[in-house]
Amino acid sequence: MLEIYREVAEDVLALPVIKGRKSESERFAGAVATYAIEALMPDGKALQAGTSHEFGQNFSKAYDITFTDVDEKVKHAYTTSWGVSWRIIGGLIMAHGDDRGLILPPAVAPHQVVIVPIVKTGDETVMPVARALRDELGQQVRVLLDEREQSPGWKFSEWEMRGVPLRIEIGPRDVAQKSATVVRRDVPGKTVVPLPEIAGRVPALLEDIRRAMHARAREWRDAHTIEATDRDAFVEALKRQDGFVLAPWCERPECELDIKAATSAVTRVMAGPAPAGSVCAYCGRPARVKAYFARSY
């Protein structure tokens, strides 16, 4: 299930995450184990974007949840809990948005393409072409033709704020030249594309937008992830609240409480076993794991 969470976050939402097991102090109360995906936000804080909890029989015994097994004996159930909640939408907005508003990954954008006609008074050439393009694109993507009375500039700002991945502008000059202007929300600039080629290019453009969004977010995440092995560098990095700090750790709850008191940061997920002979970056005891640390929401 944790891999499904990662796949949705990265391949659908273009939100890079790390996945792994939570520490004893950070796992869900009453759980045997908790697993999570963690994303890094632009302010340097971690966001727990999805969790899976293994409860064992703790809750079934507390609430007397039983079943008859194949051996015809009544037993307490082993239970689990799963969750990707509204907070991942907040993570999506924070990770991808800019000063102009949302930037939505194509897979979840209500309108993947919006067509904005630029109609001059008395002109009757633009709307038939715009409607024909809408119908052609509508066979493969979610497209909207904005026929409202507001000015084209107003519509441009509106759809930029709403994060529509692709905007297509068509005016009388475009119709005369049998082309249209294509604008990506995720990067600056405009591209003039021949009308007959637009439908063939749009799916690839949308996938390129997803890949580019993910690559930018991952590059930022990686640039704000550092490794620390000694106490001074470890504490200083956490106090800066500049992102993830990956460090060898003893995995003791007491140590994590001391780290939290000193830096306001805690473990996010375990990255795997610590290298042989390494010591905890904070307390100096033998390290059992490598863990990601960060402040969080």
Task: Describe it.
The protein has 297 residues and is of the alpha+beta class. It has 3 domains: 2-96, no CATH class; 110-209, Anticodon-binding domain (Rossmann fold, 3-Layer(aba) Sandwich); 225-294, C-terminal domain of ProRS (Translation Initiation Factor IF3, 2-Layer Sandwich), CATH 3.30.110.30. Helix content is 35%, strand content 27%. It contains 9 helices and 15 strands. The chain has helices at residues 2-12, 58-63, 87-96, 126-137, 152-161, 172-177, 195-223, 231-240, 253-263, and strands spanning 18-21, 33-40, 46-56, 66-68, 74-76, 79-83, 113-117, 143-145, 166-170, 179-184, 190-194, 225-227, 244-249, 266-273, 289-294. Strands 8-7-9-10-11 form a 5-stranded mixed β-sheet, sandwiched between helices. Strands 1-2-3-6 form a 4-stranded antiparallel β-sheet. Strand 2 and strand 3 (46-56) form a beta hairpin. The longest helix is centred in the C-terminal third of the chain and has 29 residues, at 195-223. The two termini are 23 Å apart. The model has no long low-confidence stretch (mean pLDDT 96).
